[in-house]
Amino acid sequence: xxxxxxxxxxxxxxxxxxxxxxxxxxxxxxxxxxxxxxxxxxxxxxxxxxxxxxxxxxxxxxxxxxxxxxxxxxxxxxxxxxxxxxxxxxxxxxxxxxxxxxxxxxxxxxxxxxxxxxxxxxxxxxxxxxxxxxxxxxxxxxxxxxxxxxxxxxxxxxxxxxxxxxxxxxxxxxxxxxxxxxxxxxxxxxxxxxxxx
Length: 197
Prior knowledge:
Elements: E1 4-5, E2 8-9, H1 13-23, H2 28-34, E3 43-47, H3 53-59, E4 66-71, H4 74-83, E5 91-95, E6 108-114, H5 123-133, E7 134-147, E8 151-152, H6 162-171, E9 175-184, E10 187-195
Parallel strand pairs: 3-4, 3-6, 4-5, 6-7
Antiparallel strand pairs: 1-2, 7-8, 7-10, 9-10
Helix pairs in contact: 1-4, 2-3
């Protein structure tokens, strides 16, 4: 699934508002951030940030670093900005796609993709871009909700199987790929960790 069809963007203002109300504060955001081993000096890029929930959670920990929330949908960026307090000075929201990150090389200590990998138009290109923008020893955290018993994301395609996701992350050039499962209030997520060496 991607963000565009033949008639234009799928994520228009109406759909973005619906998503914000229904899924904006999904439990996968705080679970992922709590388990991402963030530190106060990290420089985080959240790809597919949606309403910015994970960025705001990360700002509680990353007090001396920077946080960029990126989404291809202008309406999502607007909602993220509206929902983020002016008191949080280290978060910036920008429009962009995983396949063409508007970030310089070797700039980030950590990249997250929470419930977004299955939306990318070209996940292989997106993973290569993440590898480019991460500093050496930089970390990648990908998480996706578990649906249909054991499938990732929307439960379809090459990325529906967690083993395939791990394999694709490794094929992209990441090291120390690990898969973990977390559960809270009946919701489960897969969390994939990897490093750029």
